[in-house]
Amino acid sequence: MAFFEPEFDQAYSDLASSLENSTVLKHHPKYRDALKVFAIPERTIQSRVVWEDDNNCVRVDHGYRVQFNSALGPYKGGLRFHPSVSLSVLNFLSLEQTLKNALTGLNLGGAKGGSDFDPKGKSDNEIRRFCMSFMRELSKYIGADTDVPAGDVGCTRREVGWMFGAYKAATARWEGCITNKGSAFGGSLMKLEATGFGLVHG
């Protein structure tokens, strides 16, 4: 199988190599079939994100959502806004997210998404317009029983709040569309603190 995505290729090769050298495949050779399934995401969504800057000039960025695997439940994983975002990076991160979610024991699949949009140096209004445009397209593919994104690099509670508003406007729905919202929008209390406690006590 040929790969042209260096980050994903490396992650998949490492996973396959680890499993090949484990006793799991020696005792259960049929599990090798699962590795073939993990070589390709279930669904990859690519879109253009068109937004206006403060000078009324049209800007266009790439938008992505890689829905890697839903064998255990709805897709779950963050949204990253950073110039380094590419399809290869998101394929790698969504594979990693699928494995991390499986280890929690919760009924969650894995996904990752984002854009090569760079929030650095942008005004609040420019970031808000970008977020709303990004979510208008993404809203067609997410929901409580389908795919639940969250914040990640470059996508804080503020950006999540703007996207939540855009999701509600596009779908007239409220429930379970995105996590890491502020508590005023139904988000979890002490979400930020919980991450710190996990680091210290984990």
From TrEMBL:
Keyword annotations: Oxidoreductase
Record's keyword annotation contains Phosphoprotein: no
Gene Ontology CC annotations of this record: cytosol
Pfam families xref list: ELFV_dehydrog_N (PF02812)
GO BP terms in the entry: glutamate biosynthetic process
Record GO terms (molecular function): glutamate dehydrogenase (NADP+) activity
Keyword check for Transcription: no
Tree of life domain: Eukaryota
Entry EC no(s): 1.4.1.4
Signal peptide: none
InterPro entries: Aminoacid_DH-like_N_sf, Glu/Leu/Phe/Val/Trp_DH, Glu/Leu/Phe/Val/Trp_DH_dimer, Glu/Leu/Phe/Val_DH_AS, Glu_Leu_Phe_Val_DH
Annotated Glutamate/phenylalanine/leucine/valine/L-tryptophan dehydrogenase dimerisation domain residues: 41-168
PANTHER family reported in the protein's UniProt record: NADP-SPECIFIC GLUTAMATE DEHYDROGENASE 1-RELATED (PTHR43571:SF1)
Similarity-based family: Belongs to the Glu/Leu/Phe/Val dehydrogenases family.
Protein name: glutamate dehydrogenase (NADP(+))
Source organism of this protein record: Alternaria panax
